[in-house]
Amino acid sequence: MAGDRLVVGLVQMSMRPDPGENLARALDLIAKAHAAGATMVCLPELFSFRYFCQSEDAANFELAEPVPGPATQALEEVAAKLDVAVIGGVFELGAHGNYHNTAVFFDGRRGYLGKYRKMHIPDDPVFGYREKYYFTSGDLDIRPFRSSRGACGVMLCWDQWFPEAARLAALKGAQILIYPTAIGWHPDDSPEVRARQSEAWELMQRSHGIANGCFVIAVNRVGFEPAPGGSGGIGFWGGSFASAPDGRVLARASAESDEVLIAEFDLAAVERCRVEWPFLRDRRVDAYAGLQERYLADDENASGG
After folding, report:
1. What was the pLDDT predicted at 301?
2. Within a domain: residue 302?
3. Torsion of CA 131, 9, 33, 63, to 10 degrees
4. Of 46, 72, 83, 138, whose CB has the highest number of CB atoms within 10 Å?
5. Is 238's pLDDT higher than 50?
């Protein structure tokens, strides 16, 4: 990174049945992104595997590994060799029978910065997202990784729909919001439904960038992955993108193919945007106490004249 200039690489991948092949391809694509000028590279959620959460199968727990483990060690080695920051999503074997959907952050030759465990865990058996069977909800704070490439708030997939998570990361200093992702369409979805879903997904994350004055990186997998047994599946829609603090899309990948997407950030734009659009300054923190409650009773005074 020269001054405030940061070049990021988003690795949009289709996943093969063999985890070792996926890991090897990810390492090659990290090198490709680095050759294109990237000094920070982001991989999708659970990048080593096909999306095993389409079914509830106890055998899939054998896929998990501790941190550090073979996959994270491979990421750390390539990060150090190329001196490129690497963010990747892994299936973590935690303590005492807990398993986590986890993102790890390696800051080039400076090594391992830490990990984040997915906070919001979806459960949608109709559309094939049975994550509550596999993952314990995250027990680590939402906080930025203060890397040599900038302060990066890393969250995972379903987290991207929650403005509270993005706001917490920004209040703790994040300049970049990063969302490794695995999201797609059901085979029966119409073209109109597919368009609405993918548009909402992108708009939601761009809005986090606008509301918090942050750059956004959303990196998805791509391609159709059949459900176990051959009935149904998920068509992951790709569409990985990077956006600026004012919401502009700086780069966007296709919906069909593997791609290494390159985007350039001017990190000085974060502070400029927060001065011009002072959303963080003008918050009414005295009026937000109810946000910590799951539900709120109607306020009898709200309709008073």
Report:
1. 59
2. no
3. -10
4. 46
5. yes
How far apart, in whole angstroms, are the C-alpha atoms of residue 223 and residue 206?
A: 23
Please give the model's pTM, rounded to 2 decimal places: 0.94
Domain assignment of residue 251, given as a range? 5-292
Catalytic-role residue among 118, 131, 202, 273: 118
pLDDT of residue 298: 75
User: What is the tens place of the pLDDT at every residue in 61-97?
Assistant: 999 999 999 999 999 999 999 999 999 999 999 988 8
pLDDT tens readout for residues 266-275: 999 999 999 9
45 is catalytic: yes
Q: Among residues 45, 92, 131, 259, which one is catalytic? A: 45
CB half-sphere exposure, 274, CA atoms < 13 A: 18
Identity of the residue numbered 72:
T
Whether 172 is a known active-site residue: answer no
Cα separation, 220 vs 27, in Å, equals 16
CATH number, position 280? 3.60.110.10
Catalytic site includes residue 21: no
Residue of 42, 53, 152, 157 with catalytic role = 157
Residue 301 belongs to a domain = no
**Phi, psi at 58, each rounded to 5°:** -60, -25
**In this structure, is residue 43 part of a structural domain?**
yes
